[in-house]
Specification:
Number of strands: 9
Number of helices: 11
Strand order of the largest sheet: 1-2-3-4-6-9
CATH superfamily of the largest domain: 2-enoyl-CoA Hydratase, Chain A, domain 1
Shape: globular
CATH class of the largest domain: Alpha Beta
Largest sheet: 6 strands, mixed
Radius of gyration: 20 Å
Helix content: 40-55%
Strand content: 5-15%
């Protein structure tokens, strides 16, 4: 399966989503955001997939939001059609039921770093650089750079990137917890697949529930996380089966408190 701007390759329980706009260093525009949302839906719907990897084609992971795509927008278009739409797509990626690994094959800047932060694990190559340069353009991070990144990496390191414009090399990013491992140039995808294979050997239900519990503990969308966990639990109970049967048979349910 593939899209012009987001390709999907499936190998057993592992799906690789590749953002593919190498001529623009995989800078994100509206079409790419839409394609990423579609790719997430396809991966989520395939119950054989246990781990997803996201990476970039060419020299960059992603240079962030394409200035040519948003630079001429009106404030209303920018706020609703760009920022809020991007938020929905990134949240879709972050909330995939399976663990997600970001294979950082190149620089992850601005929206590219925000994209990488949606993953549960980040594997970087030694030559990459990471940063949030938006304030240098008179802009603020718009795709959860001051929200998800703070929750996942801590406020001080985000302050240094956003307020001070600091860029971090791979080894510095590792020391600050922005990435989880660093490998040689050209090896991030292979290393991500090795990590994914190790994860895929574990219980898929346990992985999904553990990911939800960690997200709840980290303050990420507590409402939907709690309701998802509760719904999964109650779906296995005898009471639910009795309730559905009673509704179908148009009778009063007799609940027994069966788990």
């Amino acid at each position: 399966m593939s899209d012009k701007q987001v390709k999907i390759d499936i190998d057993g329980p592992i799906a690789v989503m590749t953002v593919s706009r190498p001529e623009r260093l995989n800078a994100l525009d509206i079409d790419m955001l839409k394609a990423l949302g579609v790719a997430c839906d396809e991966v989520e719907a395939n119950l054989d997939i246990r781990v997803a990897i996201i990476t970039g084609e060419g020299k960059a992971f992603s240079a962030g939001g394409d200035i040519k795509a948003w630079g001429g927008m009106s404030p209303q278009e920018f706020g609703h059609g760009w920022v809020r739409f991007g938020h929905r797509v990134f949240e879709r990626l972050a909330s995939l039921r399976m663990p997600v690994i970001a294979a950082l094959n190149g620089h992850a800047l601005g929206g590219g770093l925000e994209l990488a932060a949606c993953a549960d694990i980040r594997i970087a190559e030694s030559q990459i650089r990471i940063g949030l340069p938006e304030t240098g353009l008179g802009m603020v991070p718009g795709w959860s750079g001051t929200q998800r990144l703070v929750r996942r990496f801590g406020p001080q390191i985000v302050r240094r990137m956003v307020l001070g414009g600091e860029m971090f090399a791979a080894d510095q990013a590792l020391a600050h917890g922005l990435v989880d491992a660093v490998f040689d140039t050209g090896s991030s995808l292979a290393e991500a697949k090795t990590c994914a294979a190790r994860i895929a050997d574990r219980g898929p239900a346990a992985l999904e529930i553990s990911k939800l519990m960690i997200a709840v503990a980290n303050g990420e969308d507590n409402g939907s996380g709690v309701e998802t966990l509760g719904s999964m639990l109650v779906s296995k109970t005898g009471d639910l089966k009795e309730g559905v049967a009673a509704f179908t048979q148009k009778r009063t349910a007799t609940f027994k408190g069966e788990w």
